[in-house]
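Predict the holo structure. Ligand: zinc ion.
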Amino acid sequence: MLSKVISFALNGLEGVPVEVETDINKGLVSYDLVGLPDAAVKESKERVRSAVKNSAMRFPVTKITVNLAPADIKKEGSHYDLPIAVSILKASDQLPFNTDGTVFLGELALDGALRAVTGILPMLISAKAKGFSRFIVPAANANEASFIEGAEVYALKSLKEVAELISGERVFSPVAHRSYDSVRRERKYDCDLSFVKGQKVAKRALEIAVAGGHNILLVGPPGTGKTMLARCIPTIMPDMTFEEALEVTKIHSVAGELSEEGIVTLRPFRTPHHTATTVSLCGGGGSRVRPGEISKAHGGLLFLDELPEYSRSALEALRQPLEDRKITITRAGGTATFPADFMLCASMNPCPCGNYGSAELVCTCTPAQIKRYRSKISGPLLDRIDLQVEVDSVKYDDLISDRPEEGSAAVKARVEAARAIQRERFAGDGIRTNANMGERQLKKYCALSPECEAVLRRAFESLHLSARARSRIIKVARTIADLDYSADIGTRHILEAASYRSFDGDDL
Ligand SMILES: Nc1ncnc2c1ncn2[C@@H]1O[C@H](COP(=O)(O)OP(=O)(O)OP(=O)(O)O)[C@@H](O)[C@H]1O
Ligand SMILES: [Mg+2]
Ligand SMILES: [Zn+2]
């Protein structure tokens, strides 16, 4: 007898239907599973066999062939256990009921329990877009599945429960739909800009960076608050909309890093260690493609503390995603694309001893040492960092002062206002922020007066800037003008934007 059950495969974040067909024939006792990679087949076969037996059902002792179609789709993950088990039970006439249109996803434990799997959210979203609306998933994935409106999702604990649902022996209620608003937590962060004393220039630069989605580099001696400032960035980022939250959650679901809550409500803040490999940064991996840190930072912040400590190859690998805002991972059997639209914040000391350029401290490095240290960061990478800010040591009086510093909430309000202007401006352009402007938008929205051109020319020539740096200055100036509620870019906006390229002009 032949049976067919539907499951899903993931390519990147895109779900593709997979048919699990089982054929049971009289003949020599055998159990063949085709369409899965070798290692996975072996493990799945054993799990399914034990789970069926331990669920008080019969594992057929005859010739069994299970096929996962289409064959040309890469099938990864353990979530095919459940559809395989159901398909075998149907083919052996133990579940003679209609399951057309139902999608089965779940890993089986040897005792028949259903175990949580990764990637439920992107699979459900794709499946729903393809017309499927009835799903059976592991109970542990219920929260993640609850945000999809109009889907009938059963989150069950075991193969036995699945059989009871299919046969109608027991009635289960589908997962109740939850709205984003009901779970959106009060944003709670450990840090706040009000904790950072002084550092006016750096704080202003952070505000501009977040307002326009620009990348930022903090350069300064040790212990001046660079790491502290970076930790404050998420506290001034605009709240995520439901669409953004789903986008981010999909990635974290595939990465297997979703919290109990089932949805990501706070913007990501990723801080990969400087020993991180290119694969852990950009994604990839062995049998299963995993999104890397840059994709897990999608919609939020990627913080590279002590930038020169990262391997050259890892930093070079960032260049393409910084431009494209997505990453395509190529490996045996195909490619997968993950979004990687993040804000980059990097920090570094200005020289090996850390004191170069400080108003108070003395640098003991030779020019050659400084040059070697800085050359670890390539020009092309530096070029993609719109704001380079010097963070100098804080004065003792500032540190102990009781004068209240402006808190994150006030800065965030200004950021939101600047973002609203950008949303309106780019309504028909398919982008969200000034940083994402292409040549066409630069022309359309950033016309410069002759005075502005003259100021920009002077900066270009004295700082020896690249063409890319020039257009980045204009984009930052656009953001500064937006924070100023100014329809046009003025010379003061250009001047301030150019002042954040000091690292470029630092002739060493
Ligand atoms: N501007 C500041 N206001 C208040 N506290 C500060 C400030 N700068 C530094 N600190 C204190 O010093 C600690 C170290 O700061 P932080 O780690 O941010 O320095 P850093 O610039 O990242 O140094 P490094 O270059 O060594 O990484 C902070 O945890 C905080 O207690
Ligand atoms: Mg630090
Ligand atoms: Zn030095």
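The chain has a mean pLDDT of 91. The pocket of magnesium ion (ligand 2) is lined by residues 226-227, 305, 347 (CB under 6 Å).
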